[in-house]
What we know:
Keywords: ATP-binding, Ligase, Nucleotide-binding, Protein biosynthesis, Transferase
GO biological process, one term: translation
Subunit structure: Heterotrimer of A, B and C subunits.
InterPro entries: Asp/Glu-ADT_sf_sub_c, GatC
EC number: 6.3.5.-
Mean pLDDT: 89
Amino acid sequence: MAIDTDTARKIARLARIRVEEDRLPALAREFDAILGFVAQLEEVDVEGVEPMTSVTPMRLKRRPDVVTDGNRQAEVLLNAPDAREGFFAVPKVVE
């Protein structure tokens, strides 16, 4: 699919990108090159190829999924403008 300057103008408008009129032909050529590359990728046979997250096989580091209180109550409450009995204190808003 060839991208002309009108299509490039429309794409730029849809993307909310201001492109000067003299830059539209170059932008159309760039879009054309991108679509050509995508067409090349579609020709590659990937049947039976496992998806991967990296070019080098590696296993993610894991830690036990254990619920804790973080042992940081005192540090967190130092940020509070008002703390009482180990909790954030807030003004009463309902009578």
